Automatic annotation (TrEMBL):
SUPFAM superfamilies: WD40 repeat-like. Residues 1-72 are annotated as: Disordered. It comes from Cavenderia fasciculata. This is WD40 repeat-containing protein. The lineage of its organism: Eukaryota, Amoebozoa, Evosea, Eumycetozoa, Dictyostelia. Residues 19-36, 43-72 have a biased composition (Acidic residues). It holds the Pfam family WD40.
Length: 418
């Protein structure tokens, strides 16, 4: 439902935007860097399963989350937040003030709380349906909440006061993203449209209309000059945020055959990976409007995708309980990372500065992997139901979770040795 750039926690320093400043959007004629892919014009297929380096034997049993887990229940968390009265759907860590956490849930409220003490700081009330997404802006002063009631609300982090109630969507918010360099927010909705607001004024700056199904995922490119959205209609669209025009559509033969669940945009601003219910992922060049590679091998829906911040790798997480690491140059599987068989992978977050990958699953665990060889570094347990979302601090040492068990937990790890 919610999708981010290369990682879901881009901690790029945000320049505070005044009312008069204009966010730098793209010149439609601007080109991209050379694509590091063999054969740009012809689509390639990968049927190589790669090296299976999943959790095996004793380690595999640790993450299964079956009935025996109740008897052998372990809680490795160092802190928790227990105020929610329904499932916790989303969580975010303030990248500037990492002791500040926000969570949103099925109880229609969000909370700002202290990571060190687990105590509530502010209760954010006003939504009339479940909160599906929460995001801090770049300087950590504002937090946005997106609800299934169709509203995006902006709150002052220091006071907990509502600063803007952003209107436009007629149906549920599917995802939200802040502009990487300004107080502009983007949200996709179930009403087939994507909306962009200037949050300092509360003005609706643009509506991107053209999909024929709910807009399930999307984001700004990392330079902030284009918007990319994916939909139930099986297409991705590239938009000019200055005038809301559609700059290109990728769909049809060789692309996805069913709804698109997730997308990520690489830091080069033009390479996009999409996951679909058709069991595969596609890599596309949005400058040329071509799908340049199709990643096959999963046996169920690809629910979440990401790019490495350091290596020429892509990651796909599936309802088949596995995460695959792909070599983008060859479209081959490098390794397969296994959670419990039959579980859904719910999120993938690459470390911003190290070759480390974090994954969550409905098997109730967070796993930390070496993305280069697929080896398991650490597995965190503590939840009694599915983990739906998580976030990491900028240094990767802290993980905050959101779960169906109505709880958010904090896990801590020493920086992995490279």
């Amino acid at each position: 439902m919610e999708t981010d750039n290369n990682n879901n926690n881009n901690d790029t320093t945000t320049q505070q935007q005044t009312d008069q400043e204009e966010v730098a959007f793209i010149d439609p004629n601007e080109g991209g860097e050379e694509l590091i892919i063999d054969n740009k014009e012809e689509m390639m297929d990968d049927d190589d399963d790669g090296e299976d380096v999943g959790i095996e034997g004793e380690q595999e049993g640790e993450g299964e989350g079956d009935e025996s887990m109740e008897e052998d229940f372990e809680d490795e968390s160092v802190q928790g937040f227990f105020e929610h009265t329904d499932s916790v759907y989303c969580v975010a860590i303030n990248s500037v003030h990492p002791d500040v956490i926000v969570t949103g849930g099925g109880d229609d409220v969000a909370y700002l709380w202290d990571r060190s003490t687990g105590e509530k700081v502010h209760k954010l009330e006003g939504h009339t349906d479940s909160i599906a997404a929460v995001k801090f802006n770049g300087d950590g002063s504002l937090v946005a909440t997106g609800g299934m009631d169709g509203y995006v609300k902006i709150w002052d982090v220091a006071t907990g006061k509502l600063t803007q109630n952003l209107e436009g969507p007629s149906e549920a918010i599917e995802w939200m993203q802040w502009h990487p360099r300004g107080n502009i927010i983007l949200a996709g909705a179930a009403d087939f449209c994507t909306f962009m607001w200037v949050t300092l004024k509360g003005d609706l700056a643009a509506t991107f209309a053209g999909h024929s199904g709910p807009v399930t995922c999307g984001n700004f490119t990392p330079d902030g000059k284009r918007v990319v959205t994916g939909s139930d209609d099986g297409s991705i669209r590239v938009w000019n945020p200055k005038d809301s025009t559609c700059m290109g559509v990728i769909q049809g033969h060789g692309f996805h055959e069913n709804l698109i669940t997730s997308l990520a945009i690489r830091n080069d601003n033009y390479l996009v990976i999409t996951g679909g219910e058709d069991h595969f992922a596609c890599i596309s060049n949005i400058n040329t409007g071509k799908c340049v590679g199709r990643l096959t091998g999963h046996s169920d829906s690809v629910q979440i995708v990401a790019f490495s911040n350091l290596n020429n790798f892509a990651f796909t997480g599936s309802s088949d309980g596995t995460v695959r690491v792909w070599d983008i140059a060859t479209f081959q599987t490098r390794s397969i990372l296994r959670h419990k068989e039959g579980s859904d992978i719910t999120k993938i977050v690459p470390h911003p500065t190290q070759p480390i990958l974090y994954t969550s699953s409905t098997d109730r665990t967070i796993c930390v992997w070496d993305e280069r060889n697929g080896q398991l570094i650490k597995q965190f347990k503590g939840h009694q139901d599915s983990i739906l979302d998580f976030d990491i601090t900028p240094d990767g040492s802290i993980v905050a979770t959101a779960s169906d068990d109505k709880v958010s937990l904090i896990f801590s790890l020493q920086q992995p040795q490279q």
